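Pipeline run #58 for the internal structure catalog. This entry was flagged by the ingest filter as a single-chain record with no existing model, so it goes straight to prediction. Upstream metadata was stripped on purpose; only the residue string is passed forward. Reviewer on rotation: M.T. Logging verbosity set to normal.
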Amino acid sequence: MQTSVLVGMSGGIDSTAVCSMLLEQGYRVVGLTFVTCDASFAAAEAAASLAKRLGIEHYVDDVRDEFRTKVVKPFIDAYLSGTTPNPCVNCNRVMKFDLLCRWADRLGCEKIATGHYVNIQETAEKKYYIVTGDDPRKDQSYFLWRLTQEQLSRCIFPLGGWKKSDVCNYLGVNNLDEAGKDGESMEVCFVPGDYRDFLCENIPDVDSVIREGSFVDAAGRVIGTHRGYPYYTIGQRKGLGIALGHPAYVIKVNAEKNTVMLGTAEQLVTRYMLIETPEWVDAAPLEGLTVRVRYRSTPISCDAPQPVGDGRWLVRLHSDASAITPGQSAVFYLGNTLVGGAFIASQRGINQWIKE
């Protein structure tokens, strides 16, 4: 019996290639496009046109209200709490893959597929692991660490073994060049430009919520005035609006005090970090772990996380890392296999647990 696959279609290069590849492999393919914001209506139209070209069913789901509640609001709240959010990590679990599974059930599709550049591996014990894509420049495993075993059990990732250039050539050969003619998708799909402008446009009474505060140095001395702590992220150098006679970087953001601490590049470097809410595919490995602290960062060898109380875990890194940023993801690997992840926690008080 022909297996049915529901493909998340954006109207772009990758999801269009996935539909075509799965058709070639003998699957029954159905397309689904989510309207998450006003700007994504154009993507829905493009996806519908491509689905017609491919001769497959296509559905559109307007999820703007749910998306705003589950993705946009937590994104704004994170900045207001002084952290830097990972909206794609959140969206993949609570929106994109959850909705794909729900729609697949409704449409009688056994599998779901997306255009992510990752591979998937099933063990004899029926555990599902994400494995990095063969093209390291496009690997997107970092954003998928929160997917559940139930979601992964239904996933197909046809592009895991492909390079982007080869995917583009494939579309050309198959006369599907119109896919993605408007360019690559944005880093954060619902933020068309600078996130600071987005905050200003989407926070009621923003001037009373985000107020000027103090730049301070590592000793706590006031050295200037900033526009409001949500406008600054750890490691930021440009756009600070202050001249100190030497390069300055954001090394801490304190939402409670409305202060932004500036320091040197050396003060951003560490071999320890605190994480929270770790999730593992199986038990946490004790040896051989590496961790990525941001998308496309080089994996760093590390010790297994150790609980320190108050819901946080200490991770010792075997080489230097810079700009550890609360709110971002720490994603753990054994070789090329993703074995777990966590959110980077507040680093406040970390020195009390460091024992050299």
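catalog note: The radius of gyration is 22 Å.
catalog note: DSSP finds eight helices and 18 strands in the chain.
status: ready for reviewer M.T.
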